[in-house]
Amino acid sequence: MTDFIIVGHGLAGSVMAHYLIARGQKVTVIDAGLAHSASSVSVGLVNPLIGPKLNPPFMITECLIENELFFRQCERAWGSNFYRSIPLHRLFISEKQKDTWNEMEKNSDFIQFQDGQWSTAHYEEMGIQAPLGAGITKNAWQLDVPSFLQASKDYLIANKAWKNSAFQEENKQDSPKIIFCEGFRVLENPWFKYLPFAPARGEVLTVQSEIDLALSNGSWHLPGFEDYAYLGSTWDHQNLVSGPTEKGKKEILRKCDFVDFSKKDFPQHLSGVRSGTKDRHPIIGVHPNHKNLFLFNGFGSRGTSTIPHYAKKMTDFLLDDRTLPSEANLNRFE
Ligand SMILES: Cc1cc2nc3c(=O)[nH]c(=O)nc-3n(C[C@H](O)[C@H](O)[C@H](O)COP(=O)(O)OP(=O)(O)OC[C@H]3O[C@@H](n4cnc5c(N)ncnc54)[C@H](O)[C@@H]3O)c2cc1C
To answer: Measured in angstroms, how far is the CA atom of residue 206 from the centroid of ligand 1?
Structure first.
């Protein structure tokens, strides 16, 4: 008998498993390796100033602290490196956005996220078009998601806590408690599919790039952990399992026009589905009628920033009977 079954080993299920293991729980993780998962295409960016208005996302300081604690501890325990600081060059898209950045620079609340500006000329030397210059976001981070997930899986296999299969009803006999972390596949989950999820498919290209900077104008060019960079992304709420499309590729290249990629090869073109929610907060907690069934899902486009923070809250809820944060608690829909 195991204390918890975790269904799904994307970023949510893997992180959730290690929080519970760290508290002495016996865990079994079940994953069927299903196509189109978000974590299989995620570029792992943690961006502390988001959207055209450069807003710090909800609870970002707390999330950054929890990420640092969790990922560093995993790195030490597993002897690998997968979480790194990555200054993000925010290429201004309008005078208004540049003014917003300038105003923020006068406000001490933002000192932790801003590290000055670079001029247009600075970028021109590198073949980057930045007609309005750029602000440098500090305290941005990048997780090597594939390496983290592989190290997590290796640990779980070595500790006999891994099952390579789809969840079946009879798995319920193996454990008193089941936590579903199925990403957008929650849409097929008989107990939780009623919740207001809003999945969105996104595409990513890999490219051989000489530029070693993380650049964003809303879309992004991010150095990868291997010998290539990532370009992305797109949003499609309709054709969730279409896989990568020619339309998506064109859209990415049009939006990433700050560098001329026209003569480049794109060795990989990937597509995955973000498990978003209508109110843009995760959905975590216990089923209203089945008190042994739990949900940890809905991390949308920002799972790398938020999953460790909410895994800690979920662990405190499961093991210490602590209250879940109201913005994420499943009971907000009851
Ligand atoms: C193109 C793109 C780029 C992104 N970039 C970023 C980024 O830079 N930064 C960021 O923070 N976020 C990013 N995201 C979002 C991020 O990927 C997600 O927030 C996060 O990975 C969600 O993880 P998850 O575990 O909830 O879901 P998933 O990654 O989808 O994992 C679900 C897992 O559950 C398994 N599964 C499902 N159902 C079953 C079942 N019944 N039985 C067994 N196994 C099952 C699947 O096989 C899968 O492994 C991006 C997403 C996309 C699509």
So the answer is: 19
Q: Is the CB of 185 under 6 A from ligand 1?
A: yes
The pTM is what?
0.98
- For ligand 1, say whether the CB of 41 is within 6 Å of any of its atoms: yes
Residue 157 lies in a domain: yes
pLDDT, tens only, 31-47: 999 999 999 999 999 99
Assess whether the C-beta atom of 133 lies below 6 angstroms from ligand 1: no
Same domain for 262 and 282?
Answer: no
Is there a domain that residue 37 lies in?
yes
Tokens of 289: 């009628």
Query: pLDDT tens digits, residue range 305-334?
Result: 999 999 999 999 999 999 999 999 999 998
How far apart CA 276 and CA 254 sit, in angstroms, is 25
Cα–ligand 1 centroid distance for 260 (angstroms): 30
Whole-angstrom CA distances from 13 to 38, 171, 281, 286 are 12, 16, 17, 16
Q: Tell whether 75 is covered by a domain.
A: no
